[in-house]
Amino acid sequence: MVQNGKLSAVLVVIAVSCFVLVANGFTLQTSESSPAGAIIEDESFLQSPRYETNDELQDLLARLQKDNPTLVKVHSIGSSLENRPLLVVEIRPNIDRPRPLLMPMFKYVANMHGDETIGRELLIYLAQYLVNNYAQDPEIGALVNSTAIFLMPSMNPDGFHRSKEGSCESPPNYMGRYNAAGVDLNRDFPDRFDNDRVRHMRRNRQQPETAAVMSWILSNPFVLSANLHGGAVVASYPYDNSIYHHECCEDSPTPDNHFFKYASLVYAQNHPVMKNGNDCNETFQNGITNGANWYELNGGMQDFNYVFSNCFEITLELSCCKYPKASELPKEWHKNKRSLIEYMKLTHVGVRGLVTDSNGYPIQDADVIVDGIKQNIRTTKRGEYWRLLVPGNYKLRVEAVGFYPSQEVPITIAAEQPLRVNFSLKSYDNDESDGKVRNRRPTLRRRPQTRLTKTTTIPTTIQPPPQTPYVREWAPYWYQTGTRAAQPQPYYPQYHFYDRPLYYQQPQPQAQSQQPFYYLQNYHNYYPQQRIYRRLEDNRRPDN
């Protein structure tokens, strides 16, 4: 009897404690990975739901970094048109040290339409949730320990500043949706179908927010991503447009269509509303859709990630109302929390590894090729690669300029079990003793020397370009297209480097009245935008 009384008292104390914790924003969650079978989740950030202003967001993230200096780092990747910082939160262990080899990079981007605010607050909540529960939830700890997570709450802070809480639709002039210049940022990215005229227009009018995000994407080896929107409830995957430019209702699949559908289903099926596919007076089978099938758009961020980088991205529409009242935020968090976490785990699906030469030095920009999928992944400067694949059997090989191709390797991908396959390539010339990072270059043919026949006077003495010694290190990969025709006539060859082979055009003699202009081009160090448009030209070539 006494023992039963003590047990009852203990149970009462536990019940009261749980009630107090829940009242203060904590959640009781059952977990098979926990020895006790239950975890007290810290969701204290839900206590007083509100939308933070841009300044308040900056202060909140700064406090998060200050309180967790080894786990959180806040970056500014640029500024908006009205000079508001574009903030990104990085979360991973040992944040003050370089990213561990083969740790994949994941990103969420929200609020690129300033009046679509659910995603903005969800990423603010997610950052706090990951940090608060890192030490006490084994699932969160394992995810953070194995993944470099980047969260960008607002890509369009100027548009958010102009938006009004409670507005479920954009106003007729789209104030808030667009940035301060009245540009839709999700139509502002380079597109695979851009012709020369459109490409030139994009360069001239490109918004600072777009340019900053493009540079961020191209400067980092992101593996998986999603951008968060509002106005519907569906997971949309690329492509967003098609070669036929139909208004809607026809799929435009990527070579990785199986993975994109798989990833979209992971998010949708963990969302209690999205999985039904019938919210907001629209119907989507299983809560997912191909972007072009829903409606076509050009210049979107989702397609840009896939076409111009190694990153796979989908678009998540999270609410019928674009800017709901703040009181709805806790409900939206609970709808999306499990989906957000499960989607991040997909960063580890597929195969990963290192590509090195026979001396163990990394080979950069090697092509990782999956038989039957016409989209290659390229290695990082450290020789890393991550190839996202749905469970199944595949054949994998690697090719790099200056090296013999690898043998084809049969692999089997299992769900939630990342496979590691390393490749060691043998150089054509066996000259691998200098310890250099092997930069992947295409097979460039050496061209015969071509001299200009006209002689033109150059009033100043031209000094040899300082890049020449560096260029000569890459002698196997350059060809000479001409020399100066001037009096006196110093011999300065012009070297041309390209990310892939370009069609060769014989130089034409300069007209007598023209002042010749020559410069040394080194595309190892070209700017991100130059890289974008050069890769676009590659994709348009008939042999690709």
From TrEMBL:
Any GO BP: protein processing
Record-linked SUPFAM superfamilies: Carboxypeptidase regulatory domain-like (SSF49464), Zn-dependent exopeptidases (SSF53187)
Sequence segments annotated as region (Disordered): 429-466
UniProt similarity note: Belongs to the peptidase M14 family.
GO cellular component, one term: extracellular space
The protein's name in its UniProt record: Peptidase M14 domain-containing protein
Cofactor dependency: Zn(2+)
Bias type Basic residues, positions: 438-449
